[in-house]
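User: Structure with flavin-adenine dinucleotide, tokens only please.
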Amino acid sequence: MSLLTKVAVYSLLATSVVCLQLPFKLPFFKQKVDVLTDNQVAPQVTPRIAIVGAGAAGSSAAFWISKAKERFGIDVEIDVYERASYIGGRSTIVYPYNDTTLAPMELGASIFVDANKNLMRAAKEFNLTLKDFIDEFSDTGLWDGQKFDIVLNEGTYTKSWWTTLKVLWRYGYSAPVKTQSIVKNMIAEYLSLYTATSHRWDDIADLVEKMNWTDFVNSTTLEYLSSKGVAEKWSREMVEAATRVNYGQDVDKIHALEGTCSLAATGASGVRDGNFLIFENFLKHSGANVYLNTEVRDILRVPGSSRWILHTSSGSRIYKAVILAAPFHQTNISVVSDLAELIPAQPYVHLHVTLLTTRSESTNPTYFGLSPGEKVPKVILTTHEGARAGGVEPEFNSISVHGRIQRAPGSADEKPEWKVKIFSKERITDEWLEKVFGHVGWVYRKEVGLFLFISTMETETIASRNVVDLLLHKEFGSGICGSQLSGPETSEGNPGHDGGSEDFVLGWDC
Ligand SMILES: Cc1cc2nc3c(=O)[nH]c(=O)nc-3n(C[C@H](O)[C@H](O)[C@H](O)COP(=O)(O)OP(=O)(O)OC[C@H]3O[C@@H](n4cnc5c(N)ncnc54)[C@H](O)[C@@H]3O)c2cc1C
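Assistant:
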């Protein structure tokens, strides 16, 4: 197995969900602090599972456990520990000017798509209003650091960029059509993860093998598309625009599974008031005890026992099982060395997110070498192609103007302002913002880490479903959907629920 595969397979889908499982034994339950020794363990106390992290992974893990409790009466208590003061982790919002009467902006994860069935289903079940991103991606330009390679109008980026005339003129018919077909096939395979016969996997290598994704994760996006006869110019420009805005990486670096995922933008949506609401609702519906502002410091074995003790900033408690739903190497948690060795490195790219408001409806045309007054696209994506040809690297990965701030009529400052989001490799300075926007009202910066391999809100909910299902089967003899493990190997799983319906979602409908 190549190094790339090895790293990729460990990181993909389960980047941050590691399950520490224990043989069945009733644990001791104590509300407050104190380390307990084994002989203090009281029988007939409801077993407890701890979840570290209240982001997409941790909140959905609690929800999946609660589904099994609800369906099969599994007797277990769930404690979720979160060191931040809020639920959602990297799915979080900020308000322009810190003014909660204004519509919030997503600081991290903004978009999910039709194929993301857990998030779509959750939004529906929890009555959350979705907003469409198509309008926001109308009017898109591709900047190479010195010039616009192509400008597309009429919502072409997400909706019809495969077929728009300008695209056909520049890249020909075959490259977009072949790419579209590759993406379509990848989505069809991916959707099998929601069927009743979906595979279960012990680790990511196992999943990649079962899904036949080895070729995808062993090649860069450029190599993979070229091997399928897709013209390089198309990959290095249009496909790279998508990989840079979604994952901050170029097509000759990013593996092909992630690269094709970044093109699967059909039905791009987000929750109007913030995607974190999905995760809040997962926790609310799970009945879990949620401890905010509580950092987990170490996870140790209870001496002479198969149980675990969690030391947190506000006390210690013993658990039957612990689900680690956070990027381990950023948690500062110490675990016993034989476990630490099992957790692979999680390489990530640094990215700077800059949110701002401005009275300028668009960026300054002269920055882009256009005449004053000339129209600049609302969304500017980038390619490394100019730099490859000896030019300069764009100073940002993407700039998108996200509509106007809607203020209450009669409010003090009624001058129109637009919301802007910038992704960049380097910190964006005030001087640069001044040059590119002229006026800047409010600005908010955050440096983030994006995993080099797939980690999205949805994949975290799939990974957590798998972990919870394996854990409950082992510990309680019954998973989220009952006593049978489904999957082609044990295809009798879930009799009567073959998942044949398009609306069927594994875990929700069993
Ligand atoms: C800028 C940016 C844009 C993105 N855009 C998208 C997008 O458009 N669509 C999409 O689907 N995904 C997107 N993503 C990826 C997405 O945000 C992540 O894949 C997803 O949110 C990860 O969820 P998680 O639960 O695994 O981790 P996290 O959200 O990081 O949650 C882990 C939680 O664990 C907590 N924690 C850590 N250590 C401890 C400890 N010791 N004790 C207690 N708690 C602890 C953290 O505070 C955190 O809340 C984006 C990410 C970034 C950074």
